[in-house]
Amino acid sequence: MLKPVFILLLGFMLATPMAANAMNIKDYHKKVMTDTNGKVDCAACHGDEKRKTVPDATRCSSCHGAPQDVAKQTQRPADAGHSVEPNPHDSLHYGTDLPCTYCHQEHKESKVYCNQCHEFTYPQMKR
């Protein structure tokens, strides 16, 4: 007769590969990173590196465009004045050089890097 602890351990071991593959991924990325078998392609962002490495910004650019292009897409109207928050992709401090992963997190909640010193809300930011 199998002991309950063994059954629980066996169940965990069998479920682990699926659980590792079902990592918390934002819905909009899950659509493009999941193959026909339902397996998430971690290499799409992480390349051949270890899965826990932070993706290089060129991985983001391959789908979303160059940082300068993203900055143009999020550009604020010139006559908006101070009532509109600055363009987060064209920072007064960093220009377009700040890595995407400073704000945009895939496996946890995204945070506005600038809010370490400022208080911006960026309501359109996908968290």
From TrEMBL:
Official protein name in the record: Flavocytochrome c heme submit
Q: Which Pfam family, just one, is annotated for this protein?
A: Cytochrom_c3_2
Q: Which residues form the signal peptide?
A: 1-22
Broad class of the protein's primary localization: periplasm
Q: Does the keyword Metal-binding apply?
A: yes
Stored Gene3D superfamilies? Flavocytochrome C3, Chain A
What is a GO molecular function of this protein?
Answer: metal ion binding
Q: Which UniProt keywords apply?
A: Electron transport, Heme, Iron, Metal-binding, Periplasm, Signal, Transport
Cofactor(s) the protein needs: heme c
Q: Which GO terms describe its cellular component?
A: periplasmic space
Q: Where is this region: Disordered?
A: 64-88
Parts forming coiled coils = none
- In this protein, which residues make up the domain named Tetrahaem cytochrome? 39-119
Subcellular location, record wording: Periplasm
